[in-house]
Design a protein that fits this description.
CATH superfamily: Nucleoside Triphosphate Pyrophosphohydrolase
GO molecular function, one term: metal ion binding
Number of helices: 4
Number of strands: 11
Shape: globular
Strand content: 25-35%
Protein name: NUDIX family hydrolase
Keywords: Hydrolase, Magnesium, Manganese, Metal-binding
Mean pLDDT: 93
Order of helices and strands: HEEEEHEEEEHEEEH
Helix content: 10-25%
Radius of gyration: 21 Å
CATH architecture: Alpha-Beta Complex
Pfam family, one: NUDIX
CATH class: Alpha Beta
Cofactor: Mn(2+); Mg(2+)
Low-confidence stretches: none
Amino acid sequence: MHLDQVLKKLQNRTPGILGGNRYSKFAVLLPLIEKEDDLHVLFEVRAFDLRRQPGEICFPGGKIESTDKNEQHTAIRETSEELGIRLDQIKNVYPLDYIVSPYGTIIYPFVGTIHEPGPMKPNPSEVAEFFTVPISFLMNTEPDRFKIHFEVKPEKNFPFHLISGGENYNWQTRQTEELFYHYDGKVIWGLTARVLKHFLEVINDQ
């Protein structure tokens, strides 16, 4: 291969996430509702017979389908389907920072407002119930924080003889912080808590 061929491949290339084409991609919406003279964040409780994370608290959202226009479209569509509201009731949709998880997923979070919510009719196959939390409470509440430490465990036939240090190689271990918010007997944690904390930091930035 000649140099001009290599350079042609690199010209006008838009960088992405290395290996990102193998990641599963999801979009979620952090819904805001005006309620009782305050602004509230809406959360869902996942249906208890779901295969993944039954009964956990989350934001509306789901996997990005090939028929979706973009990540924002997914977040709006999933929110409409899960909460039983019209698409045109979801307004003022803005992106937050996206998350690349160590579990092979990319999550695109958005914030949006729900107008004239009225009586919502959540999809019972996905949502057991929903509830709201005042932003004033969340902004004045620090979550509990706990560390999770990841262990490096090479597979049985790992070729230690090919790396410097062999079996004594100094692996870089890592840890992650889990956040826990408590409200009215409910616990908000995991990805939902991370997105929530990020949102609160964005709107509280001076």
